[in-house]
Amino acid sequence: MRLLDRYVMTNVGSAMFLVMVVVLALDLMFGFIAELDDARNDYQVVEALYYMFLTLPRRVYDFLPLGAFMGCLIGLGAMASSSELTIIRAAGVSVKRVVWSAMKPALVIVLLGVVIGEYLAPPAERLAQSHKAIARGAGENIAAATGVWHREGDTFMHLNAVVPDGALRGVSLFSFDEQGRWLETSVFAERADYQGDHWLLQNVRTTRLTEEGTSLEESAELRWDTGLTPDVLSVLIVRPENLPVTGLFTYARYLDEQGLSSANYWLAFWKKVLMPIGTGVMVLVAISFIFGPLRSVTMGFRVFTGLIVGLLFKYMQDLLGPMSLVFGFNPVLAILLPIVINGIVGAVLLRRAG
Q1: CB 3.0–4.6 Å: which of 236, 252, 324, 348 could bond 148 by disulfide?
Q2: One domain for residues 45 and 118
Q3: By mean pLDDT, which of 12-26, 117-131, 168-182 is the weakest?
Q4: Per-state percent for the chain, helix, strand, coil, to nearest 5
Q5: Edge-to-edge, what's the strand order for the sheet holding 213-224?
Q6: How far is CA 238 from the centre of its chain?
């Protein structure tokens, strides 16, 4: 039985690896072409290649569920096409035993995804985004097209880049009146350094708007008091879905305390927490297809069916996620519903096959 387990694991695992290599190669090629469109200032071909290298962990993490699903579908499908699964069943091996053997590579995928998603992808993504922003001149532009916006009280702030060491580049602060109707002060600093309990802005230009007109002040340094810390700001520069679970939880709580909308971060939090379960369910669906409706079809049809099912699963989550933000229902339901539906389909098909 150990030899049989090893054989099934090798076939499924190698198929998963092959799928990941092909998908990542295509994604990196098209991603690099897209990055060339952003070339500006010091951000040229070499910097774009470095950016692609830094974003590789995030891309691996994004495609792990698809790789596990398609790899299982192709690996077991090849065994079904060569009648190996039929011989294994005829030898008295139960469907549950084959399912468990095929699930083991998926468990490795899940563990790999947790490690990459928590410890590798987030810091690499922060470094990639800050490197790209600085190379494109983050410290020279007021409220550049890239960067992040944030609000604290009556002050709206835009940060062009958050450097990995905690410093900020291109800080714009816009202060409004108590009713939020009139802009009173605009501050732009090329750089900001954290001093333990406050920030020190450098090369500052302050514009004040009054009924008498506008005035411009320039100073080498200016103290900036805010509740934002480098730890919180390191979260801001990365998209919610690319943050670790701990960072998502911390920043979502911070937004709740500030009275700001945190729905996007809670949605990303639950999507990451439930990702291992979703991956396992997708693998279960792939196995059920092989023992069920896709037992005797061609490999091309299996791949086509796998793509359709995988895309449907992704689009269901992508559709229900924004719906939870618009209609205000719990984001957990948006993530769980596709998982539950696919789990029921997989369980029913496997029960019929057994």
Answers
A1: 236
A2: yes
A3: 168-182
A4: 65, 15, 20
A5: 148-152, 155-162, 168-176, 183-194, 199-210, 213-224
A6: 9
